Amino acid sequence: MAGSSFGENFRVTTWGESHGKAIGAVVDGVPAGIPLCEEDIQVFLDRRKPGTSSITTPRKEDDKVEILSGIFDGKTTGTPISLLVRNTSQHSSDYNEIASYYRPGHADYTYDQKYGFRDYRGGGRSSGRETIGRVCGGAIAAKVLKELGIEVYSYTSSIGPYSINPDTIDTTNIGKFPTGLPDKELNDLALTFLEECKAKKDSAGGSVVCTATGLPAGLGEPVFDKLDAQISKALFSIGAVKAVEFGDGLEASKSTGSENNDAFESVDGKIRKKTNHSGGVLGGLSDGSPLVVKAYFKPTPSISKPQQTVKQDGTPIEVEIKGRHDPIIVPRAVVVVESMVNIVLVDALLSGLGSRIDNLKKIYL
Amino acid sequence: MAGSSFGENFRVTTWGESHGKAIGAVVDGVPAGIPLCEEDIQVFLDRRKPGTSSITTPRKEDDKVEILSGIFDGKTTGTPISLLVRNTSQHSSDYNEIASYYRPGHADYTYDQKYGFRDYRGGGRSSGRETIGRVCGGAIAAKVLKELGIEVYSYTSSIGPYSINPDTIDTTNIGKFPTGLPDKELNDLALTFLEECKAKKDSAGGSVVCTATGLPAGLGEPVFDKLDAQISKALFSIGAVKAVEFGDGLEASKSTGSENNDAFESVDGKIRKKTNHSGGVLGGLSDGSPLVVKAYFKPTPSISKPQQTVKQDGTPIEVEIKGRHDPIIVPRAVVVVESMVNIVLVDALLSGLGSRIDNLKKIYL
Amino acid sequence: MAGSSFGENFRVTTWGESHGKAIGAVVDGVPAGIPLCEEDIQVFLDRRKPGTSSITTPRKEDDKVEILSGIFDGKTTGTPISLLVRNTSQHSSDYNEIASYYRPGHADYTYDQKYGFRDYRGGGRSSGRETIGRVCGGAIAAKVLKELGIEVYSYTSSIGPYSINPDTIDTTNIGKFPTGLPDKELNDLALTFLEECKAKKDSAGGSVVCTATGLPAGLGEPVFDKLDAQISKALFSIGAVKAVEFGDGLEASKSTGSENNDAFESVDGKIRKKTNHSGGVLGGLSDGSPLVVKAYFKPTPSISKPQQTVKQDGTPIEVEIKGRHDPIIVPRAVVVVESMVNIVLVDALLSGLGSRIDNLKKIYL
Amino acid sequence: MAGSSFGENFRVTTWGESHGKAIGAVVDGVPAGIPLCEEDIQVFLDRRKPGTSSITTPRKEDDKVEILSGIFDGKTTGTPISLLVRNTSQHSSDYNEIASYYRPGHADYTYDQKYGFRDYRGGGRSSGRETIGRVCGGAIAAKVLKELGIEVYSYTSSIGPYSINPDTIDTTNIGKFPTGLPDKELNDLALTFLEECKAKKDSAGGSVVCTATGLPAGLGEPVFDKLDAQISKALFSIGAVKAVEFGDGLEASKSTGSENNDAFESVDGKIRKKTNHSGGVLGGLSDGSPLVVKAYFKPTPSISKPQQTVKQDGTPIEVEIKGRHDPIIVPRAVVVVESMVNIVLVDALLSGLGSRIDNLKKIYL
């Protein structure tokens, strides 16, 4: 099936393998008239660039984006925007060895089962490099959101055992430290922990929080296309995500109605919620409070510690995964999470335009 | 936007409000030749029926389903199956009061923001009765799965503070006790806890586990339409779900790669995983192990304890929600979770048919 | 595959067989706030009712529509509108005979090839009664169009050899005569011709023109979802349509550029085309002139004249189709054509809302 | 809206403007295991190449395709195939003049109305160069069809007043002559006619027939996604198409049931139709006879003859369109028509895989 597109009215189609010629995306449904240049996208891509600290792969990925269509006189034209990032740093020979066996925690086995064979070089389409297309789409979505005064930010909320309380973070620390944790002390503890992981030839997991403010209330569709449902799909579609929660999330299930319900109040003639246990969604529609979602990532499956597995024919084999791997993917995944949330929000904004006949009259009459 | 359909090749479209004339669904894309009768669907609907214990609403809902199309000589014809459940137990007068204010934890405010007004009777489209259409779809999907030897079961995994370890449950206890917890002792503790909630005019939350066995490996699509991504959307589209996790879920994020990776082994010439931390999905495709997903529900927002809120015009008001409400929705949501998983699985099975050119040759040559 | 839905943002899902319990539709994506009652839809359904003249089947079909959801206080709520028409006049015994052979010009053979068997009673899902759901959707779409000052009308433009010039019709004659031809004299000639067909146990074809005025320019999407492309799909999806053309249509292919191009002019400060060879579409977008489309219908395949065909096992057989059939379906198809055009127009209006970032600002800021 | 994708299970997404950096397509849903190389696509692209005769634009377009993803070891992997064609022959200065006014018969005015402004260079996205992406998709679809023994061919069936009888063509003449008419004598007459058009600074239209043989019966979906409905949308989505017909098409509307119905017969134990008035479709499903569809094209709107039109502000202006234009687009459109039919057929083949539960058993059990 055609499964490489996301979104209905704002649609991102991605393509490309880790060690193919290039990676890219086509972003369709972008409203006309928004200023956009390659630098707008490059800023997002640079946030997922490896090689910037001891805890990311030493692999050098320049990942320079080229816009091939959809822009005229520096503005979006309403036609599809095609984005291209050439792969430049492939060491395919690193991967020849993995052609013959199934790496634990990877998609080697499942791809073979689905398609009969696979592009094994660097994980092919299941590589983390696949997220480049998502980030391109997210960067364009960010431009749309900015025009409407909507702000989205995201950060590492935990690494292994070290986690931060979302309610007390200093947002000025976002993006400041290598781990993505917006707290100097916690960042340093996590760095030490990750160095230990590396030394043990092992890897770690963590979580990312994404928050959106300035959303109009009523965004999303009430039944199957609830705003939280669409965001959860967007986040689970990122490789390695194993759990997603909104607002109090899992903890809400242990709470009582009287604790969990957010009371409404009116301040300066504007209705709003006093608290935000809901994470900004009620009945699948944005409720005017900040949208708060958290995605949990499993540890990087590529580890150089010896592991038991089998060859394609079932023969047992002990392997030590070679190559240039991140001991944790969370810091580089922060911008991917944000990008996917951006994409969902723009799609929801477009899809929601027709909810009232009065809106159509405003545009067409 | 048209947001009342779920699935691409197997598509369930639901409609209906709590206090309208009827609730129903249209299920399209059902393969021809499957035996199906109203009783097959009634069995599923009866599992969400209230009034069966002290912890569900005393509201009597007969919810008799009528099949209106798509069946001939007792078998599916490949054309859409329309299902109708008449609403018979509406006490609209119970709800007249809530027309004027916004219930905390409900979608009253967000519907008004999106549409300008709302059908306030019993929550209208945002009522739990909306799930009747989902369960109809899930019951039909179950028939498809059965033809292919796939089994799906689900149960309450926690209620408030009482939770069960999925690895040690006795599956013969599934569906046996009022709480849906497959353990007599835990059920009794949870019942007492729920009675206390009721006495305090409060409500509780909990969680549901759903497991699918017998799935072919390689099911799902690798990028945006990953099997877990689609299931998470399906589950978050159920009102009150606040978190979803697969396999070790949230805990995986605190684990290391060497702990979390599932080693492959070959047994009797068949490759399989030794453990199932992944919850049956690798790279978004089913990996041959049981699929294990858990959804967390917030406490029922309708409580008769006094709450602060506002009228539509912003005037503060203290309310005590009247009406016949469940102190917890989890036991009745078990079949809804299962239904949504069933629907995703059948859609994925249909969508995956064309993954290899050899499959097309098998069918068309 | 799920093929019973039409439209993206305004979506009509139909279901039901000729001799099943009922026929119906679910209409999703209707903007909130539009006055709508059953009578609005009944008026449309009555236009496709048989039994009103000598040239339609004497079969009595009351076709009373019931709205089951999506309306509150007499207005659309933005949630799906479910519509139900009970089948009341089935004579299934009329059709038992046709179970065993393949009627020429019908879908009996192709259904069997696709699904392995078929509901043969009255043609099952391939019956003309399937269009009831379309007309329900079209009636609702008409209400949306009316709010925006868009008018759509349609009429029989030819029956067998008798055809009318669209440029010279008297629109006050639309819907006046049994054939649907808006000309008394031509209607009478066509009636005589149809009586002769009936006498010969044969049937006739014809064509329908549909025109929409008041459309905003720029409606439609430029590449695959061109306005004319979507309308052509909508019209070819009506059984028996064999050709569709816009504006000068087929004749344009024999014209020259200087004849076929419509010059632009400015009148009272408003740009418009001097002529309308294009039929109101340029580059797939509405061009401000009336949209003009014509659909050609083949003769009714059910004729009582003896025909050669085969049984399911290939045995040759001569058949005379019994039952109550129209000698021509065109007069009853007029409202079906109009309904499908209505549906496409509303979907295009909704989908086009986000073409400019300024539109989003108008709605959300 | 996102309108640049075509197909559900086999999906072609195109992008690019005439005078942008490049044009391309992403083809998703291609089954794994099909041999594919750039040459396979180049062969199709070369069929739409201009500059090969006096009746096509002297503009030189090399249009070399590059495959960027989705292929491994010379075979499709099941992941999206990205295709890139760099624009190399843009003379944007030719078009600066047209920035200020609306060319008759072009999409200049309608784009401005929809988006507020437009990329006017060479028509931007509404240029005929947009079809490059379609042809890339069609070439890949052709490879799928070949694996299943399905053959598709197409040819010019008329140019201005000169038309050929599809029933008597010599298929060995297809693709032999510059006009695409598969008849030497008619080709020569048409060439003379086109030279006269050119001399008069005018242009001509024509038609294209496309035929598919070897299709399994039962292909397509019965209601809205009828095979003919989908093909008609595909063809009307090609700029300049003004009419589409299947089989006897328009003429069927003047026929009688006894003439138009195709009798079934059994030959060598195989059921087939004796005649093919239907053009290979019954009830929207392929009927085992060759699929025959015809698309009619209007004359090229770009003519150097003086024309009346207006500037963006409404000022009247007389224009003579400069630039390198084809006096007719039909010969180059033949491969575009074929490509779109290919795409629909592969999508229908994939979508039809699940029509019977037995098919699922064949693949999954």
Distance between the termini of chain A: 41 Å
SSE order of chain A, one letter for each helix or strand:
EEEHEEEEHHHEEHEHEHEEEEEEEHH
Q: What is the number of strand segments of chain A? A: 18
The oligomeric state of the chains shown is homotetramer
Main sheet characteristics of chain A: 5 strands, antiparallel
Instruction: Give me the side-by-side strand order of the main sheet of chain A.
Output: 1-2-3-7-4
Radius of gyration of CA atoms of chain A, rounded to a whole number: 21 Å
Proportion of beta-strand residues of chain A: 15-25%
Low-confidence stretches of chain A: none
The helix/strand class of chain A is alpha+beta
Shape of chain A: globular
The number of helical segments of chain A is: 9
